[in-house]
Amino acid sequence: MTDITRFKAIFTGLDIAYGTYKIEKAKDNGKQAGKAVVVRKPPTDNLWTDHLNGVEPSLGIIPIRADNSCIWGCIDIDQYPLDHLGLVTKIRKLELPLVVCRSKSGGAHVFLFTKTPIPASDMQRYLKASAGLLGESGREIFPKQTEILVERGDTGNFLNLPYFAGNDGFRYAIKDDGTAASLEEFYALYDRFVQDENLKFPEEPAEADNPIKDGPPCLQALCKQGFPEGTRNNGLFSIGIYLKKVFPVGWEDKLMEYNYKFFGPPLGLNEVQIVVKQLAKKEYFYKCKDAPLNSFCNSGVCRTRKHGIGGNGPDAPEMGSLSKYNSEPPLWFLDVNSKRIELETDSLFNQMAFQKACIEKINMLPPTLRKQDWEAVLNGLLKEMVELEQITEASEDTSITGRFVDLVEEFCTHLQQGMDRDEILLGRPWTNEDEGLVYFRIKDLEAHLKRNNFSGLSAPKMAQRMREMSGEPVNLYLKGRSTRVWTLPRFDKQDSPFVTPEMKKASPF
Q1: Is 370 strand, coil or helix?
Q2: Greatest Cα-to-Cα distance within the chain, rounded to the nearest angstrom
Q3: Residue-wise pLDDT tens for the chain (509 aa)?
Q4: Residue 315 CB-density burial (10 A; 0-12 exposed, 13-18 middle, 19+ buried)
Q5: What single DSSP character describes residue 3?
Q6: 336: DSSP letter
């Protein structure tokens, strides 16, 4: 029998769900396309064993745990083909404690492992900084969330694990010489690079060696590693923007100095003079979306730098990892600036409703996009959406959902009850004793909630909460017409009489 003990310990994540990926076809770029599904059940030992034995489907694990911590994370480099040896060599040169594994489609999963759990936010921050140093900024980072709403049915995103089919598969780690690592050799790589709780984050170069002091991390990395072929003009222009901030007088001479020191080969004098004339016309912002800056970007850190993008950089929020809770109506979970928010379909589809939700839940107002741009964003999110299935347990929230459940029970048991089913049309709940079900119209329940000043849940969320209480909508034939009603399992009645305490007659003396 395959021993899963160590493999499972290394890749342990959320213990209440796992992921599967049904392959449907291969894209033109080599990446396999399919449907990602999260199953709300614990990943059993049999699933781990099947994964190492190559039994389809392969196992996906969600790195972020219920307490928002993790012991592993990953940079997903979905580039095909990919020079795996070149990537490993670069990682070693930068002295980053990362392990590269070949992904199922031939790209790379670049892992960071820790011995003890660290906050998911720290894992994300380290991997984003590492991706920037590697020139792989913008790649997917796992964990995708810094927090998940477990009590709402949320789970986060899973990553397909390496070593599907063990030593006979193609999802192996890459050794420093570029060859495939066996599972035992992978364990040796893990032991070599796993980090303790004192994880040291990639830092700004020492001041004496730093030509871009308190400036954009992308320019710091590029000055150290070199500007890629075909990006020297854009690179020098960006350097000029930085130098104008630092040296308001004499920046032109500094630009010439940086050209000879950090560009190989340097740009010609005429090309430098063209850049100088452009920069002298007006003040420019860094072109963060253009090469070569975009591949080395670390916007979160850049915003904190004195000569970084500050408040003038891109202000659109980072949105990603959309998940759909397959309820009726559905609920959606979306990552906005690494914060997880719960949305209804209307507040996802309608940009103004989405902006309102962001104000309420994460205290920010995203900029308004053109209609076609907003639709393009949504289509991109839906294309990579993960579906959450087989979620059975009810979510509990003492401040909102708990009060809702109490008011529903009060409506179904304490108010005047219908003597027969037709009295449902009079706004009364009616209990079918034979079925053990109580029937009522949703509008009558809403009126009861309104009388009790309850407005904590919208109609779609109320419907979802009632489904979690084993309720469902049905059609009843009442007074000659079909009526849409809800059913819930009958609540227990208070059969024992309340005991009234005896009052002793007080003596007048």
Answers
A1: coil
A2: 114
A3: 578 999 999 999 999 999 987 666 555 555 555 677 888 899 999 999 999 999 999 999 999 999 999 999 999 998 888 999 999 999 999 999 999 999 988 999 999 999 999 999 999 999 999 999 999 988 999 999 898 888 777 888 999 999 999 999 999 999 999 999 999 999 999 999 999 878 887 765 665 568 888 889 899 889 888 888 889 899 999 999 999 998 988 899 989 999 999 898 899 999 999 999 999 988 888 888 888 998 888 887 887 888 888 645 445 677 878 888 876 667 888 988 878 888 888 888 899 999 998 998 888 888 888 888 888 889 988 888 888 764 433 344 444 777 888 899 999 987 678 889 999 999 999 999 999 999 999 999 999 998 887 876 777 888 888 988 999 999 999 988 999 999 999 987 655 554 444 545 544 44
A4: exposed
A5: -
A6: E
Smallest CA-to-CA distance from 322 within 331, 311, 310 is with 331
User: What CA–CA distance (Å, rounded) separates 113 from 142?
Assistant: 12
3-class secondary-structure state, position 412: helix
Closest CA to 432 of 480, 485, 479, 469: 485
DSSP string computed for 96-116:
---EEEE-TTSSEEEEEEEEE
Q: Domain extents for the chain? A: 5-193, 207-312, 320-389, 401-489
Spatial distance between the Cα atoms of 250 and 246, rounded to a whole number of angstroms: 10
Choices 3.40.630.30, 3.30.1390.20, 3.90.920.20, 3.40.50.720: CATH for 5-193: 3.90.920.20
Residue for token pair 């076609």: 372
Q: From CA 9, how far away is CA 115, in angstroms rounded? A: 10
Distance CA 483, CA 355 (A): 36
68's enclosing H/E stretch is none
Q: What is the sign of the dihedral through the CA atoms of 12, 18, 23 and 24?
A: negative
For residue 68, give both structure tokens. Answer: 């928002």
- Crossing angle for the helix pair 232-246 and 269-281, to the nearest 10 degrees: 50
Would you call 255 helix, strand, or coil by DSSP?
A: helix
CA angle at 161 for the pair 158 and 165, rounded to the nearest 5°: 145
* CB contact at 8 A, 386 and 157: yes
